[in-house]
Amino acid sequence: MGEDLEAHLGVLRAFVHLRLGRALRAKEETQDLVQSVCREVLAELPARGTGNDPRSGSGFRKWLLQAAENKIRDRWRHWRREKRDLSREIDLDSTRAADEDAACQLASWITPSRQAASREELARLERIFCELPADYREVIVLARLRGWSHERIAARLGRTEVATRTLLSRALARLALDLEPDDQGTKATL
């Protein structure tokens, strides 16, 4: 069952990093939360049943990401309690005039509409990524999120290094193509 977890570790890292948000990321490390989720998931694995268990097979990834979502929600609750309220914190460096000017410029750049647009674009990227063929998703996760060498990816996928390079190239091209709207505003496919 640990193999299920390892297969989804890159996706889990990316998911946690993207879901944290800037304010919580200032207080929590992505890797720490990933480790905490993994520890909790591994603790529950021996108790898993068989048969119609929603955590088995293809439901494992959904269950894993839901566990991560719950962990992030718990950390938000922890930091939002009044005694730890991020809005009450005073950054000592920001008391200097130069820092205040930079903060004002940054605040004018980060608007609610830009945040909403960023969330929408991220959701679109995640949806398009999930629509890619499984081998494309896996090679992108291994190469780009986990940072594996082509040699290691080839061994994992049972392919040659040349084949994994080609697969990665095609996967990234397909992802880029799917992200670009055509003239009618719909995505094109290879």
Q: Outline, from the CA principal axes?
A: globular
Oligomer: single chain
Radius of gyration: 20 Å
Share in helix: 55-70%
Number of domains: 2
Give the distance, in angstroms, between the N- and C-terminal Cα atoms. Answer: 35 Å
Reported for the largest beta sheet, the result is:
none
Order of helices and strands: HHHHHHHHH
| Poorly predicted segments | none
Mean pLDDT, rounded to whole units?
77
Strand fraction equals under 5%
Helix segment count?
9
Task: Tell me how many strands there are.
Answer: 0
Going by helix content, strand content and strand pairing, the class is mainly alpha
Please characterize this protein's 3D structure.
The chain has helices at 2-7, 9-25, 30-44, 59-80, 97-109, 112-131, 134-145, 150-157, 161-179. The chain has 190 residues and is mostly helical. Helix 7 packs across helix 9 (161-179). 11% of the residues are buried.
